[in-house]
UniProtKB/TrEMBL annotation:
Membrane listed as a keyword: yes
Keyword Membrane annotated: yes
Pfam families: MFS_1
Superkingdom of the source species: Bacteria
Name of the protein in question: Major facilitator superfamily (MFS) profile domain-containing protein
TM ranges: 66-85, 91-111, 147-168, 180-200, 207-225, 264-287, 293-315
Any one GO molecular function term: transmembrane transporter activity
Source organism: Candidatus Gottesmanbacteria bacterium RBG_16_52_11
Keywords in alphabetical order: Membrane, Transmembrane, Transmembrane helix
Taxonomic path: Bacteria, Candidatus Gottesmaniibacteriota
């Protein structure tokens, strides 16, 4: 995790200093490597630590609290970032890099569960990584789940990190206004996410259909030339991206053995970043020619042709356990 946080901080410094497309591409690749390190590790460490104490059912409750805390941080950062951007375009990136370095210092004081640490000592690291990679794409249900995760994560993360800001500018929001807009969007997003988890206790079947539904709501209506509709879509776009960390991560944790959990999650997030980089590269000419709304429309086509059919297969009774244990009994997991 520490290595991943440091590498991600370096990518943000490169982003903030970028003067051409090549530097942006290099920064995106560096960031993808960094995120793959810590996105997989932090989820696996949390789940394994809870499992060691028989509390894996509390995973979603803790993740929901983490999402709420993260959204609060992003709200504050979004507002401050809007003002920093007016001073110098690179300042928001440099501030983000500094925060990641502080996180690396904080993480250095963490410890792993004995079960997880023992597993690392008993297995050769390179072999574990290779086996974890194979586990991600092995035949059958896990391969389909991996493809679903990568497509959902790649598309929605491209919206979150890149496209939503451009879309907000196109419908008339300035930099400071966008800071306040996304602050409100993220606050609503956090409250809705926690409400969804507590009210429904999503089963896997519901989760699989939830993502294509919210993604379709977010895509084709972007073609409607109405500022109120478009502003609402920024909420659903953000919701679809944030939902991955609460719902899909819980599904993957439940499906994959602890031996390969960190590697599988890291591999999935690395491929999410690859889809993100590809999406940003392909979106550039389309945005220049016709605007970001058509990129969303293309995302809707991919959702209909790829993600929805995958959801239908994954949601079949054979692939369904009654409910994801990590997404139930949320009230018991409050801290």
């Amino acid at each position: 995790m520490i290595i991943g946080l440091i590498v991600s901080a370096v990518s943000l410094v490169v982003f903030g200093s970028a003067t051409n497309g090549m530097m942006i591409a290099v920064a995106a690749i560096i960031g993808g490597v960094g995120e793959a390190f810590y996105f997989g590790a932090n989820m696996a460490l949390l789940y394994d630590a809870l499992k060691a104490f028989g509390r894996q059912k509390d995973f979603a409750a803790i993740r929901a609290n983490c999402v709420l805390s993260a959204q609060a941080g992003i709200i504050i950062g979004g507002v401050i970032g809007g003002y920093l951007y007016t001073v110098a375009k690179g300042l928001p990136y440099f501030a983000n890099a500094a925060s990641l370095l502080l996180c690396a210092v904080a993480v250095s004081g963490m410890f792993e569960s004995r079960v997880h640490a023992a597993a690392i000592r008993l297995h050769d690291t390179a072999r574990t990584i290779a086996n974890g990679f194979r586990e991600t794409f092995r035949q059958g249900h896990i391969r389909r789940l991996s493809a679903y995760y990568i497509m959902v994560g790649g598309i929605t993360w491209t919206w979150q990190i890149y496209l939503n800001q451009i879309f907000a500018s196109e419908i008339g929001y300035g930099e400071v206004a966008k800071g306040w807009l996304f602050a409100g969007v993220r606050l609503m997003n956090a409250l809705v996410l926690i409400g969804l988890a507590r009210a429904t206790g999503f089963s896997k079947r519901r989760i699989f259909y939830y993502f294509p539904l919210i993604m379709l709501i977010s895509t084709f209506p972007a073609l409607i030339p109405n500022a109120y509709v478009n502003t609402f879509l920024l909420f659903t776009m953000t919701l679809s991206a944030s939902s991955r960390f609460t719902f899909l991560d819980a599904v993957v944790n439940d499906e994959v053995s602890s031996t390969y959990r960190a590697t599988v999650l890291s591999t999935l997030n690395l491929f999410v970043r690859i889809i993100h980089i590809t999406g940003v590269t392909l979106a550039g000419p389309i945005i220049d020619a016709a605007g970001s709304k058509w990129v969303y429309a293309l995302g809707g086509i991919v959702t209909l042709s790829v993600i929805l059919p995958l959801a239908a297969v994954l949601a079949r009774p054979k692939a369904e356990a009654a409910a994801v244990p990590a997404l139930t009994n949320l009230d018991e997991g409050k801290t």
